[in-house]
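#onboarding

Welcome to the new folks! Below is a worked example of what a typical request in this channel looks like: someone posts a single protein sequence, and someone else replies with the predicted structure as tokens. Don't worry about understanding the tokens yet, we'll cover that in week two.

Example request:
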Amino acid sequence: MCGINGILHLQSKRTVDERVLIKMRDALEHRGPDDKGLFIDKNIGLGHRRLSILDVSTAGHQPFLSDDERFIMVYNGEIYNFKDFYPELKSNGFDIKTTSDTEVLLKLFQLHGLKMLHRLNGMFAFAIWDKLEKKLIVVRDRMGVKPLYYSFYNESFYFASEQKALFTAGVPLKLADEGLEEYVFNRFVAGENTLYQNVKKVLPGHIMTIHESGKVNTEKWWDLKSEIQNQPKIENPAEWFRETFDDSIKLRMVSDVPVGVLLSGGLDSSSILASLYRQNYKDIETFNIGFKEEEHNESHLAKMIAEKLDYRFHTMQLENTSLFDNLLKSTYFQDEPIMHLNEPHLLAISQLAKPTVKVLLSGEGADELMGGYVRYKPLQFPSLLSSIAAIGSLDVFSKKPRYEKLVRYAQIKKNADLVLFNGSNIFPNDIEETFGIHTLPKNEYRNQIYEEAKSLYPNNLQRQALYFDQHTYLCSLLDRNDRCTMGASIECREPFLDQRLITGLGSLEDKWLFTGKKGKFILKAAMQDRLPKAILKFKKVGLSAPWGDYITKSPAFKDELEAFAKSDLFQTPYFEHIKIKKLVENLQKGDVRMIPYIMPLFMMHIWMKVYANRF
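Example response:
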């Protein structure tokens, strides 16, 4: 796990400025405090910060050179099955000199080129410079667990694990109009675009090749739709899931440093812990964040399962000044306004874990793969939404935030929009009425993914929403996990995102996902003999936080809320029609319906304060 960055001057005899490359690299020090390296050869420069997980000796130093010195690689991530390739590499004349996956990755590339990607089980973003052909190859893993950003600027190609390194190199920090629109309507920017002008992501499952001449090729090396279509029929889904999940856990325990578990007490993280126990792993440390508000708290369940399985349990609460400080820090690490609203908590729990472990297992991905969100339920009977919209006009549900949100969601008429805005907290009608913003974002990438989902799962809005979220919402969650854990110099691994589980689950019948009130039927079926009923039947909470109370009642937030109500943000063209003082006053009076409107604006205000002016 590391931070990578680089510069390639195109069609140029300019030599890479070592000082700029070092500044880029060291902007990512939190991603790799254990080691640092540089490679510069005229117009190409590669930088690396290392968090040592496999082969913690100096043998794993990067940038990593091939034995013939033709290829130079910087790499972020883990190849969990790297030892499986030892016999093949040795039989082809390669001498294995380290116990790191970095060496295996580069030698596989030498042997097979990019065809080797399909055989990797892992998470990765890497860049390889080919000295002979004068081209830079950048690659990102199947689901985008590892981030990779780039910019073409000043006749050069810049890339890095985080946007801040690009801005440090001199790429201008400018908001993109379309990115801002997507942030307001959809909570985050999906696809290759970002909130910023001229800063893009390498898409998950994609390869970019940048030639010294300036020619650029992009190709998709892993396509979820075709993988699902080509998945053989699974005869015993519960047994298949249990065996594959256990193997995924076993692979993700490959480490030369201690591994712990992010344990919420919910079904997903508890299933990880139960699998570790079943496979006889000892001395596992678990880390939990609790809330004093009962409706947000699962700590009692987390403690119960940890003690039952004889694993050590650590918990904490985050409030007042500590919460505010972590909000500022997590906004810096995130590079964009935070949108999941639990980033400060995840950063804090990672900091709690840091003295004890270097790797954390997370339950991320389970909801998007197996239908775990309540918001998928209305899509099972879309015709009923019009009836709900009519009932809503009688103000029956106004006191219950979840039902009030459902009534607002029911105003959406088109099936495509029901999928596109399913993960939003406020919807186009709300934004028009409350913010005075009438123009919807173009959402080209989201529409493209929706068309793929529709062709794969015709007339099935629930499955379309899952496929859609796997390419959009899940990517934002993975980015959040990476930024918050790496902010504490910890690696995060997601066992549910093994490619065998992703494609296999995508091929199953609906009943294995949506049966029952809370979805994830296959996970419950697979874990029913491993987990207590208290966890199997507990109402889903997730890592949610009472932000309405935080910003109106916490002393640490009082002054910030006053500053927010007067923020320059509301003098800018896009936000000028928002009557922010009225929204804040309503929230202060206890109107919780204001929270989904205020929070993205409040987080944008925080981002302007702590991030935008740094570059």
